[in-house]
Amino acid sequence: MKIIDFIVCDDIRQEASNKVTLVGVYDRSIMLQAGTPKDEIVWPLRMKLCFYCRFTFQEDDVLPDHFEVEYFFNGEKKTSAEGRINKPSPADVISKILRLSIIGNGFPIYSIGELGFNVKFMKENDVLYEITPDFKMQIGVAENEIKQVSVH
Prior knowledge:
With 152 residues, the chain is mainly β. Helices cover 4% and strands 58% of the residues.
């Protein structure tokens, strides 16, 4: 099993025509907008963060029945999300694609730093595949300047 896409975004919507809409796709960084200076932010912050992942499998690959996505902050495992994997649709079996949509309401952001991921695919209690995307998300804070306006 190999990774095709691991996309981090603000929201994922499933359309009636079986298409997926990704809203607010992040590149390799998340810049948080802060109304206060960085040193006054109370961490962890909670935000909605979604993950859309596609994997390709081979004819002889064993298909997993559940998954776990581990989240690392500055190299330290902080949390994880688990879920069942539905039987692939006939179209997905033909194209050899496995899709995961993960909606993280209240996802914790611990501070400025680096967010990494690891995906485990399991069948019963056995880990079949472990895949780590080859990028890390940089978390930063964009401070808003307070401007004085003079009216004459």
